[in-house]
Amino acid sequence: xxxxxxxxxxxxxxxxxxxxxxxxxxxxxxxxxxxxxxxxxxxxxxxxxxxxxxxxxxxxxxxxxxxxxxxxxxxxxxxxxxxxxxxxxxxxxxxxxxxxxxxxxxxxxxxxxxxxxxxxxxxxxxxxxxxxxxxxxxxxxxxxxxxxxxxxxxxxxxxxxxxxxxxxxxxxxxxxxxxx
Length: 180
Hints:
Blueprint: H1 4-9, E1 12-17, E2 24-27, E3 30-33, E4 36-42, H2 48-58, E5 71-75, H3 85-92, H4 106-117, E6 122-128, E7 133-142, E8 147-152, H5 159-162, E9 167-172, H6 175-178
Parallel strand pairs: 4-8, 4-9, 5-8
Antiparallel strand pairs: 1-9, 2-3, 6-7
C-alpha cells in the first residue's frame, strides 16, 4: 500500500496494438506517409486528455505552432452530432445522455480519420456545450502530422473507427478518483 494521495493521482494505462501498420502510399504521384493513429479511451474524467497532453509534452510538441506539429491531438467531443429541438430541451434539463454512442456523428468521425490517415488537412467544427450545437463558423484545423492522437470516451465503440487505430490506449482510473 502506498501513500493515498499518490494512489489517487495515479492511473493505470493498458495498451494493445492492431495488426495495421503505417505505410507509404502514393497520392498524386508523390509519396505520402501514413500517420500513426493512436486511440485513447477511458471513462469520463479518467485522464485521457492529460495522457495526450503528456505525450505531446514528452515529444516536444506542446508549445510548438500548430502548423508545425508532428504530433496532434483530436477530441471525440468535436464530433457530437447536432441535436434536434426536442433533444436540446432534454439536454438543458440534464436529461440527454452525451455518453451514449448515438450522441456522436459516427460518419463524420470515420470520414475525418480516414482523411487524416491519407495525410489531408482537415477542418473540424467546434461544438458549443452551452448551446448544445455545432458551430460551423468556428473550426479547428488539423494539419498533416506523423502521429495523431484521437481521444474520447467511446473511440473504440464503433468497429470501423476502432479498426483504423495503429495503437489503442485505455486509461483505467478508479471511479472514486474520477468522481472526486
